[in-house]
Amino acid sequence: MRKPRTPPTLKTLIGSLEKPEGLFAILQTVPSPTADGRYLHWEDLRHRKPPQELTHEHWWLGLKMRRQTGYRAVPLKDTEGGTFQFSVPDLVTDLLHQIDRGGGTLVEIPEQITNAEQRNRYVVRSLMEEAITSSQLEGAATTREVAKKMLAEGRKPRDHSERMIVNNYVTMRHILELKDSALTPEMVFHVHREISVGALDIPDGAGRFRRPDEEINISDLEGNVFHLPPPAAELPARLEAMCDFANGKTPDFFVHPVIRGIILHFWLAYDHPFVDGNGRTARALFYWQMLHSGYWLFEFLSISQFLRKAPVQYGTAFLHTETDGNDLTYFIIHQAEIIRRALRELHEYVARKSSETRTCLEALQKHPELNHRQQALIAHAVRHPGFAYDIAGHGARHGVVYQTARTDLLALAELSLLEQRKIGRAFVFVAPRDLESRLKAAKR
Fold first, then answer.
1. Which of 200, 245, 394, 435 has CB 3.0 to 4.6 Å from 405, enough for a Cys bridge?
2. Coil, helix or strand at residue 385
3. From the first residue on, what is the mean pLDDT of each consecutive set of 10 residues in the chain (444 residues)?
4. Cα 137 to the center of its chain, rounded Å
């Protein structure tokens, strides 16, 4: 990743004008804080063709003057004492509207989510996905397939990467329980401790501030430093200020809950109060903020899977904010677009599963003797021919004891809906390729 160029200052740009009335002409040519619907940083703008006869510098001046009028300051300060601020241009308003409609404040509750059994499966799926991809963003090397199997079966982690994923999964489940509580420094420490215990290079680093002798910076392998967080001595006061912001005590004007959650995410990452695990903690606190604000559908949402697909854009959004006068709008737009994509994927997933469920239920009507665990397994098996199920994994997925899980699988094998095989000393139960035909052919 390359650090973007710092834009020219307003003072420099205004001083370059030959006549004072030149600014008025620029503002007439640049009527909006965006260009072609995009909130461009100087790094992007300087490669584009300016409107009419403007230079790149004068085009930037016009955009910045338009943005200045809409800035709202937040209590977050940079390492030099400068204020962070954000604006809400039309594209942000549109993104917030789409998130409100799809994120739980205005959305109708899908029928599948009101069903307790299916709701639990959706929650477990999203928590697994978020735990895995959030950890992979921070360097966990375990594959998604291995990680999902580990979490589903309740297997103990074997290495550092698997420990990161298990910790993240446990923490995300706990966030659901904490959503009605106010954020406190103690809660932040608790979240960090859960995320990082047993997964840090510095064993005693879990759940405490980094110390002055623990130098922290964000840099690449070549030693290029992208971010220096505030000194350790400032962290207690900064954490108190962050919690006040998260709880709505500051600032003294309305901040849309989605924007508040995104800024909370940025704040923790900017301060980097811990020796490691800051990114995972920041994303966990974002989820807390959204659930705390009533966006209940975020229980089923994973944003890290989209961040992982474009990690450079994630980092660039931070750097655009830092290099352009602490303008948080860049990070807000990036995160809001990620949230919109995650919500769209969730709604498409629910619609797809609803269709699959209806088809499967029609076939399962010929098997009223199957309990809900067996029905869920068969619904999965229809979509995954050749998949091998074992007793421990089935029990872990549904929270039942070994004997109950064994009875479930043996019964399905007796009905020829699964094929029982022995691998080594253990039995596995394989989804047959013609399972759907077997379901339909069953006698009532």
1. 394
2. coil
3. 91 89 93 95 96 94 96 97 97 95 60 59 81 90 90 90 95 95 98 95 93 89 87 98 98 97 98 96 97 91 91 95 97 97 87 73 81 90 88 91 96 95 90 87 62
4. 11
What the block records as the tokens of 381 is 């098996």
CA–CA gap between residue 260 and residue 240 (Å, rounded) = 16
CA distance 54 to 278: 43
Place of tokens 């890290």: 304
For residue 174, with 0-12 CB atoms within 10 Å meaning exposed, 13-18 middle and 19 or more buried, which class applies? middle
User: Using an 8 Å Cβ cutoff, are 308 and 137 in contact?
Assistant: yes
Cα atoms found within 13 Å of the Cα of residue 340, Cβ hemisphere only = 15
Determine whether 186 is exposed, middle or buried from the number of CB atoms within 10 Å of its CB (0-12, 13-18, 19+).
Answer: exposed
Domains of the chain: 10-69 (no CATH), 73-348 (1.10.3290.10), 369-441 (1.10.10.10)
Angle between helices 257-271 and 278-292 (to 10 degrees): 160
Q: Evaluate whether 336 touches 413 at the Cβ level (below 8 Å).
A: no
Q: Tokens 């420990």 label which residue?
A: 163
SS3 200: coil
Residue 83 pairs in a beta bridge with 77
Distance, CA of 93 to CA of 172 (rounded, Å): 29
